[in-house]
């Protein structure tokens, strides 16, 4: 048997003594436990055994806990010389202005101990009316961005060398002089500039260097509109729109509530026409024709899905429909699927002649010409559309930009200065900007960081953040505002640090005036004469600065003609006074509205051909055009529609996705990845089903894929993909879409971090809804409570049943009401809440685990095709019915938004389950949360019917996994609100109803020895809201707005009232101005109505 | 550290009382002492007692310069009147000082004027000098006499142990003696530990009870020790927190002797949640003129000058500023929101309620524990003095009075002990 010997190796064959010894050991080598436990000396000695290890462990734990017990010695270091205006612990407020070349908002900046911590809307502005949006709210964090450059840098070889301003000025001054001497071209490439002083500075610069020219380029351009207006009205301007006067609004793919032109202004105006009450049961009617489901489309009364290529045709058809009604000549058009609704819109428009608005989000001159034609027919100019008082917010000239790039490519430009503009990232791929840019000899950037364009420059001369700067603004005619420094520049230093771009330009043009005095000079010469309120300039200046925003020409004696800031041609200050007289004549007193031939435009529109898939590029509410891509607050803000964070993606109609891509149904977070190709450019993105997306179209958000935005792109990975290369230039204007897109599966999947994976209300009445007609008949329509069955077969209103005793009505009783008719779902409140309450940023991986920390979220629900009524009719079983209910209607669902924060239930389920009484009820009706008492059982979150309680799974403030959190950065930490605790791991948190603001407001009243007045306390969310949808106040004060509202408004309701929790937060029923309400709302309402009646009979 | 800073105060007291007892026999000195207070409160901001000019001229030898004492009194009381009367000397000094008029002190009584003139004439140099010679805040004192109860206890125990050991030896010897007598085998020497173990094994129940008692004691003392974490002071244990400060600021002198209002320096107390530690420029308001104090002479004030960058010789700020790193005495945890304005302005509470009588302290020391139970105790006991007259509380007060008929309306009755009032 044992004739053959098998051996494993020569060692076994030779049977050496070492082998024999080793063979007896089970493991070939000793497991090197000691080595990885640390000390190598221990290995040589006795070695640690388990007992030693436990001893060490025990000792170190004891030592650590003993060390922690020692009372720390804290230092208190007062100022040596305290600035007069600072009282420690008391906030100072400064009026200022936010404008980044895209969004404009007049703001108030709250500073504590010299550092800005919060931005709020400025109520005295007649442009933004105290509203803000998410991007404005989050801009405070961009101040404390540690990716900002701390001083000028010059490129040497491939690397950057920090340099000083004196040497930069000398080098650049010399080079510019040399270029000017030989007649070489100098170009300033900037996004829209609405600052009269900055324009004057540039004029001074061009006076010094006559070969210099300003080219204005906006990443998201409205050039087509301005060009169309030039044809219609003879002036290249963009008018002001008055949505507050519009009874009928038709928008063709213009997202005017979130992005289009001046969204904060329009949201406020729009909401004013949407607010209904018994006394004033009127609201505007809003039609939206679009491809992507936009925020504006989600709020529309009638939303129609059209393909991108059809948008122009819709406008032409609308023109014809209106023309037919009012008896005007029509244009050639082809039949569309949505002609019926176009006819309906045309009927409503003509009925509201002079009180309607038709707009288009297209940048196509022809489409805009036809839109102008419609508005002219409807007599809207001078009424709802103010072409006399144009808006200056968007002055980009696409053709000029394309020319500049061509000029650069052919090496005709010797120096280029980029200001507030990042074309290497935003320019269409077809222009090959990067290549052209590197052809320019002297490349100067004023960017605050080495972004995509600046990183290719020869010098970066970083500009101050807007919160560190002086500036002036002229957002629209007769409206001026100022920004003032709210903090000493963070990187201030003698000869290094950041420097205001305007000051830099002034120095290069040989002017040593500081920009502050320069602005004063400009204002003294130009703005001061336009008003008649103040006699002395000093007084005028101080008041303007205090107010932040002013409107001139109204009530003042100055002639109307005086006040135009010429936004197209600018003259240097020195010559301004000379030119003023000339300008007086140049201003057209009344613009002639010429009837131009639209036949040509219509035939060009008719020639637009669509493809199998068409692409509509859009801006997200949070990221916008991408200039704040390094802002973690914005990255974590869920998109209002898709509820997805930290990504861009391809939105596609679920119908189109069927059988091809993962439909992400039933809480599925896994998305298929596709390759999207337009004109030879391909990007790889996940594809997400978007109910309401027009079939045959896809949407991709701009502003993502920034690899040089700052540290965020290194801390996570580059977020999303850049879709700007897909922009093309058609007829001299940028087209934000493509008519033929190739979409192929990449045979990959990826995970998507959405905050809401359940999209419907499952037949429950969480958002109550009615339509205007029903509301007029019965103000309580849509708001009948779900009745409760009793043992004797009767039904009873659950609000009247109570297990507990009612709370006493002493002192205050805080309450909040949210008007779902005014809420547009924009998310400004979410960012405002984050800033006010030091809410942590958790990142994509945590959002995927549903661990986002937002105290306030906005739930978005789609309507579903399935309802209990439908199931009853079709005889579908309950399980199938509920499964079907989960799916939103794939074709054009209705959308509702509902801000949800802690409802501060009077009989709060969370309070009864807390084993340590960390959450309990205060006498003024708040559900308080004592963090330092919380032991983290999470019972409360389990018991909360609203899922508003957020648990700190990690120490987001220290754990390096979450390095993107502002609290982990020495600079970012400065944004924290010192009146609110920064929570640590293992602690539950939730909306406190800004208790710090409540306490502060009460204290002010107590100190002043007066009663608390309604409006003394404004919560962070209510303050930020551009539409004033949130009302907060004292329910025990009979004179407060909220008490009246609760008493008188039939639309008032509480969510989940039927479970007896008695919430403090209430909502007002949504009223839509259309025939049908969503299916879900319809059925139970009908039923409960009958129940109510039967009860009444009984 | 504690003893170091408390003791010197006692020494000062001793010196003060000694000097004071000398002064009462000298009436002119008494008025000078009053005069000192008046001078420091009103004049010292602008005038020094030496030759150097601050805002106004130095007052050394002023009596010989002015026409007479009566003129000086008139001038101090209302210099504007003297000037307008056309007095030649008045005009001269007005011109000398660049036309800047002096503050009018019309509310000074004649006694005040006499006292302050007496003080200007003969400032008590001796007092300051005596105090300076002592070692200032670093002085240590020999420990107080008396027997420490703990030491006594340990002594007694040690004594008992010795007695037990001796008695054991004696017993063992006696036993062996007896054994020897009886012819039994000698009992081997057993160690006390072995014997104890033997006792334990035979008395298991007693041992268990004792062990349980000891364990219980340890746990409870550990529990109470944990409760002391972060508590700097506790009057129940006679424990105070009195860290050594970079400058030995004398509250007693400023707030007590010179009767400077607390709010002059802690100006945020009615306007903000923090009362605020004064910035150096507030110190300099007075100390521009006062470079020498009665207790520590120039040493401590020189530290202010150093921080402010003030050159007392040239009378200008020409040196770099150095912030003073005070040690925070009254520490509250970060998760507590406490507002001074709520308590002082609205609740009309006296500073001393929480901070102790600072008029009797040199550097501030924490005398109250500042624990939550201390806060709550106070809120349960305290009626809000400002409540009745404040329209803010009107309706609430009415409702509460109805609810708690006759009972005092304390802070807790209006929600003052709810979590959300301080923790957010």
Helices and strands, with pairings:
The complex is a heterodimer of chains A (1098) and B (424).
Chain A (H helix, E strand, L loop, with lengths): L9 H5 L2 H8 L8 H5 L2 H5 L5 H20 L5 E2 L14 E9 L4 E9 L2 E7 L12 H10 L9 E4 L2 E4 L2 H17 L3 E6 L5 H13 L3 E5 L6 H11 L4 E4 L6 E5 L10 H10 L12 E6 L4 H5 L2 E4 L5 H16 L12 H13 L4 E5 L4 H13 L7 E7 L6 H12 L3 E7 L3 H4 L6 H5 L4 E4 L13 E2 L10 E6 L2 E5 L17 H8 L6 H13 L9 H11 L1 E3 L21 H14 L12 H8 L7 E5 L13 H5 L13 E3 L1 H4 L12 E9 L2 E9 L7 E5 L10 H4 L12 E3 L2 E3 L1 E2 L3 E10 L17 E3 H6 L10 E2 L5 E2 L17 E6 L8 H9 L7 H5 L8 E6 L5 H7 L3 H8 L9 E6 L8 H5 L5 E3 L5 E3 L9 H5 L6 E2 L36 E2 L5 H13 L12 H5 L5 E5 L6 H8 L3 E2 L11 E4 L1 E3 L6 H19 L1
Parallel strand pairs in A: 7-8, 7-15, 10-11, 10-13, 11-12, 15-16, 16-17, 21-25, 22-24, 30-43, 33-42
Antiparallel strand pairs in A: 2-3, 3-4, 5-6, 5-17, 9-14, 18-19, 19-20, 21-28, 22-25, 23-24, 23-29, 26-27, 31-32, 33-40, 34-35, 36-37, 38-39, 41-42
Chain B lengths: L1 H22 L3 H17 L18 H4 L3 H9 L1 H6 L3 H9 L13 H12 L3 H9 L15 H34 L9 H11 L1 H24 L23 H7 L4 H4 L14 H8 L11 H10 L1 E2 L4 E2 L8 E2 L12 H7 L4 H5 L16 H10 L12 H10 L15 H4 L2
Antiparallel strand pairs in B: 1-2
- Structural class call of chain A reads alpha/beta
Approximately how much beta-strand content do the residues of chain B carry?
under 5%
Q: Give the overall average pLDDT of chain A.
A: 85
User: How many helical stretches of chain A?
Assistant: 36
Global morphology of chain A? globular
Number of strands of chain B: 3
Computed CA radius of gyration of chain B, to the nearest angstrom: 33 Å
The CATH homologous superfamily name of the domain at 2-138 in chain B equals: Cytochrome c-like domain
Largest interface, C-beta closer than 8 angstroms, per-chain residues? A-B, 47 and 59 residues
